[in-house]
Amino acid sequence: MKTCKFTSLSVLILSLVCTWSVRAQHQRETERCQVKTLENSNYFENWLQTRTFKTAINTTDIYKIPIVVHVLHLGEPEGEGFNLPKEQIEAQIRILNEDFRRKEGTPGFNTHPDGGDARIEFILARTSPDGKATDGIVRIDMNQLENPEKFPSSFNFYGQYSYWDPEQYLNVWTLPDWPAETLLGMATGPVTDLPGGDRFEVSDPVDGILINAPYFGPSDIDSNYNRGRTLTHEIGHFLGLLHIWGATGCDKDDYCEDTPPQNKSHSVCPATPPLACDGRPAMIENYMNYTPDGCMNIFTKDQISRMHTVLENSPRRKSLTTSPGLEAPVTGIPDVVASAIKVFPNPVADHLNIDFGENQVLNKVSISCYTSLGKKIFTNHYDKISKRITLKMPFTAEKVLFLQLRSESLVVNRKLVLR
């Protein structure tokens, strides 16, 4: 019997490489996606089994996730070529919400008895890691930055250009340098924080999703994958879903009872679906299959339960749903309050002092430090602070850092020069 859990593999680092042949207008090999888990899948399976897996989907809460889209381009003006227009990026977010919410009257709707509303919504980030207002889009001309990475890892390489705190944002990069119809997308899988996690190597410190730029959002590219479903598929992996055929073979499926077991992927949309291993029609319309975008319209109830379990328990996933990036920056704070906070010395070497003044008490405070590209260096949490605290500065090759102090009542940002 199939059960909703992760498949067991004997390798420490899993990379599911997904290859299939395009039989329509493109006659060369296409990889729809690759999935990189950040540690041993047996370990993640054991972690899932310690949690109470849902037998019914959450019908009360809506999980909201902030997305930052890092648009990597080659110097084109905004809105041209690989420097994707804002309207296309916003349309991609709309498609995600149609698909994950099974919105009636959209291509994401279905009437399948096993389909459901995932109650997961996506929002372009409204507050950046430094506390400033943002539209959730970062544009980077790759020709203007020298990358110290030389493709030892795709995620590490592209993360050098731009990367926001993965505990607070779902990082998505659109890439200009992948050939069309070769690889459409890649995703990292969930991470577990159970005791014993230090036994496993982390394959990629950079967490998120890579999308071949022509397949991001709706486009007029001559392809079966021009309706924005590549990101829907990859977010499924990001939230813990396997391909519905598992690892190829009828006995190695995705471990969700309501997705009929397949022994391979499907790449076309026949009027009459082929039969699955158990005699039921294969679910060619599932987002975790390999069929063209026009076919896809369903997450099943078991798949939704699986994603909810990850969102409620997994580090770097659970924290997304309470991210400050979901809301606009705190405004209207009296200048006298913020200006009373002194940060010194600046330039700073080993220790940094933060002086809050004699009569100011702040509750539920977090103090974070970020690079100029938004990569978090550290975060400290305090229930209550007053007067002065001293922070030991970490060793880093960065010359400039950005300090953010966030409490229940204010957000303060300071630029730090390191010496």
From TrEMBL:
Instruction: Please state every residue range assigned to the domain named Peptidase M43 pregnancy-associated plasma-A.
Output: 163-312
Q: Name one GO molecular function term.
A: metallopeptidase activity
What keyword terms does UniProt attach to this protein? Disulfide bond, Hydrolase, Metal-binding, Metalloprotease, Protease, Signal, Zinc
Q: Which Pfam families does this UniProt record tie to the protein? A: Peptidase_M43
Quick check: keyword Metal-binding in the entry? yes
InterPro entries hit by this protein: MetalloPept_cat_dom_sf, Peptidase_M43
> Which CDD domains does the UniProt record give?
ZnMc_pappalysin_like
Signal peptide region:
1-24
> What Gene3D superfamilies does this protein's entry cite?
Collagenase (Catalytic Domain)
Q: Give the PANTHER family listed for this entry.
A: METALLOPROTEASE MEP1 (AFU_ORTHOLOGUE AFUA_1G07730)-RELATED, PTHR47466
Family membership: Belongs to the peptidase M43B family.
Q: What is this protein called?
A: M43 family zinc metalloprotease
Q: Which organism is it from?
A: Agaribacillus aureus
Classification from the root reads: Bacteria, Pseudomonadati, Bacteroidota, Cytophagia, Cytophagales
